[in-house]
Amino acid sequence: MKVLLLTGLGALFFTYYWADNFDPASLQGARVLLTGASAGVGEELAYHYARLGSHLVLTAHTEALLQKVVGNCRKLGAPKVFFIAADMASPEVPERVVQFALDKLGGLDYLVLNHLGAAPAGTRALSAQGTSWLMQVNFLSYVQLTSLALPSLTDSKGSLVVVSSLLGRVPTSFSSPYSAAKFALDSFFGSLRRELDVQDVNVAITMCVLGLQDHASAAEGVRGVTRAKSALGPKAALAVIRGSATRTSCVFYPWRFHVLCLLRTWLPHPKAWFIRQELNVTVTSAV
User: Could you say which residues of the chain have pLDDT below 70?
Assistant: First the structure.
């Protein structure tokens, strides 16, 4: 009986993760606003969209890095690429970014939210000021961008793509403010998905649960604290694009993260010994 049950579960996982109806042609000419596009997964997302023939507006904090990515996208065949440097820590910036994208592209088919702010890991990050800054960049700006872009996405029956982290599902040590923002994203967009369904609004929401260190700034924030290794940017980016293009509700990369999220239900309070296996606890300071 146990063998049959395990076989059945294995078949379900196989079907869930490997059934693929992704059509690359569906992204040709798609109008995409991509945030956090200057490095890491965001940069790789820009290159994938460029190869697939999408029209792009890219934004990130650093203009010089954006210009490099824009040049590479043009070489890869993107028919239209625009950029706008923006600091999402400023509450007035999201409106300027969305309006710029609408002016340049005439509308949106995809809003891909990928930007990230990461405070230094450890107890020194536990301050009201630092947490407020993180919430603005990693959560409130996502809400603002979504609210501003939603009318256009509704008209195009488009997609919202939210690149989040495993720490938005499974909390861990020395990441309290960061994890709080990621949990907020998961809750907000999960609720929004239900609201859109009830109102018969045909806008898909795809939550993408990636490793913390798929983002360069997050990797810097936990350098020397965690032993976890980063995932490959191009592969993670392709998983995001496939999932959002097929209007999947959630993407896990690597796929084993889905298993970890399920295990959290059975083991909500892991022992400290297990936590220490992922940490260099000697480098952290006491409260």
Answer: 1-20, 119-126, 166-174, 212-232, 254-287
- Three-state secondary structure call for residue 165: strand
Q: Is the dihedral of CA 202, 99, 113, 56 positive or negative?
A: positive
- For residue 138, the 8-state DSSP code is I
Does residue 254 have a cis peptide bond before it, meaning omega lies within 30 degrees of 0?
yes
The pTM for the full model equals 0.81
Amino acid in position 283: V
Q: Which amino acid is at 110?
A: Y
- What is the set of active-site residues? 178
Q: Residue 10, exposed/middle/buried by CB under 10 A (0-12, 13-18, 19+)?
A: exposed
Domains and CATH numbers, the chain: 25-117+127-279 (3.40.50.720)
To which H or E segment does residue 31 belong? strand 31-35
How far apart are the C-alpha atoms of 44 and 53, rounded to whole Å? 14
Helical residues (DSSP H) of 106-140, grouped into ranges: 128-135
